[in-house]
# Entry
Amino acid sequence: MEHWLELAKGPLFRFSFLLMALGMLRLVALQVVNVVSARHGAGDKFFPRGNVVRLTLDWMIPINRMHKLRPVQGVASFVFHAGMILVPLFFIEHVALWKKGVGFAWPGFPKSVADPLTIVTMVSLAVLVFVRVWDRNSRFISRGFDYAVPALLFVVFLTGFFSTHPAFSPVPYNVALLAHILGAEAILVMIPFTKLAHVALFPVIRVSSEIGWKFVPDAGEKVTAALGKEGKV
Amino acid sequence: MATVNVRERSEREILEEQLIKDLVKRTKKKEYKYAYYVEKDRLVTENRPQRFLEAFAAILQFTNYRHLLELYSRIGMKCARCTAMCQIYEVTKDPRHIPCYRTNMLLDIYRRHFTTGGWARAKVFGAGPLTDEKIDELADSVYECTACRRCVLECPMGIDHGLMTHLSRYILSEVGVVPKALVVATRIQLEGASRNTSDIPVVALMDTLEFLEEELTEKYGFSDIKFPVDKEGVEYVFFPAVSDYLLEPDTLMGNAAALYAAGDVNNWTIGTRNYDGINYGLFYSDFLLGRIIRQEVEECRRLGRTILIGECGHASRSAKFFVPVYGQPNPPPVVNIMEYTWRKWKEGKIRLKKGVIEQRVTYHDPCNIARSSWIIEQPRELLRHICKDFVEMTPNGKYNLCCGGGGGTVSIDEIRKNRTTVVGKMKAEQIRKTGAELVVTPCANCKKQVAEVIEDNGVKNCRNVGLHDLLLEAIEFDGSACGAPVKNKDKE
# Structure
């Protein structure tokens, strides 16, 4: 077991982190290249920069958005994301792991802060899943994967909690820790390839949507020609 | 006792089955496939999925949509938050009307046929290829949507469902699935002799203008007012929605009165080669959108410097946002008549009598000019000045509800019942709640739709007017209001 743990903490962690980082970099780079080339080909180069930046920030920190429409979902989502960012990055034990993995460290918070954070994150995650199932619409458009991701996240948080409180844990400490680390690594690997990609892509979404309306002047003619049509109405 | 274990069918399966039944029933009974008429000789019937994908591929190759599909197909969260914004969903509660679901119909096709991941997934899980049924579902769905883009405001991921509806319609139009009403109008506009969607010949236009001049002189006391035609070297070339010449004489008179009062009577003109601001290309084809814009720009260059759009939402938006695309080089500036009047009023060139309209008035924001926060406050300032009792609908401005006839659906007469009693139902309630007698709808599409909404939903003691219909009553000329209060006027 010790051997597995070492493997998970060391090479596997470095591998999944690298895969995530490179994958995210690739996604952002590709999207930036796409957006720049789309704008290059567009007939109208005007871009309402301030407006798009404001919108993006507004949704990135959606404090004044969450309570107006669907407050339960809004608040749960906000709390979940806050926990999701704070605990993996700033819990003191994680900081130590980051130092080992990436070579440098930053200040972190102790268990007394991490514990309540972990619990509210799990609760909010459960609420989110509950809302997804409860609401007829999101249930209708959701597919298996939309439940698999929160399930995995929940397991990671739960095993993390068990690892710091072995007294509550139904499984041996090592097993909980191993499951926690492997689960977290699975999530890191999933980021570039699944809908978790919004971690990286969020800042460019609204820029892209805006550029989407910048049409290419002669595209219509080219499409018509490519389809072998005469261009009559 | 043995129990028979029947797997419960999922909601989606039930709905899909229902959809196919609907389609079959409709095809049998009425001999057409969609909720709207399409031109039969246009419709691709053989090998349609293949042809659809070819059109999709060609569009992806030459346009700017690919990066969006790439992005949207990665990040959709399926949170269904958009349902709270969709007025069609709010009424029907049919999950097929969830904006995200509609967008995903297109994204699924994209994933399956244009990405390696989707292709591999299909191989592993055995997802079927594109079928006629899927195309038909998409075809019905994208013309139920009015492309009002209200859902865009609340998508946490910033997915522009309106743009996806636009793209879906574009691809569909390439395989012949497009409402006949839109095609016929566009054909007359681009290939007919009159060059306008209502097929009004120049002679009839001149007659109408003469009549309007007489009306303005007799009824309102403008002695030397003119509708200048084909005057070269002017600042403003005027493009209202051409249907105004048939249906909205008061709006046109108001427009002319504003230009006259502002001292621009010799500085604007109507071009006889093209006098139509309507652009149905915006609703179903980038190719036609561009052609119509170029025709408009050409006429503007022949006669003047600025494109002045009348009271029409989509005409304003298509010109404002797509003249810079298709009107290169040096695209002419685009001004909406409400912006113009408001500016001249602020500059003190137009004087308006205060509180001349006595009835309760409310204002409907056309999606195409309000959703992007382009024109929201200007007409309100004018209305607050000239009306004694101006009330707001809720929600309003950027968050307004669509009249229900957006995205070209107002021209499709065969879907009127659905358009007014389902899509326009919330609008009717909204209007009813204000208790207003006059609903100001500064858009040709909204005018037709709101009138029908009021009629079909039985909103009592209420009618809709244009902004300039009311301004016409309030414009001060030679120190006095030139017209009588609207209540004394027998409009009907």
User: Anything to note?
Assistant: Chain B is about 50% helix and 10% strand. Chain B touches chain A through 61 residues (CB under 8 Å). The CA atoms of residues 34 and 407 of chain B lie 17 Å apart.
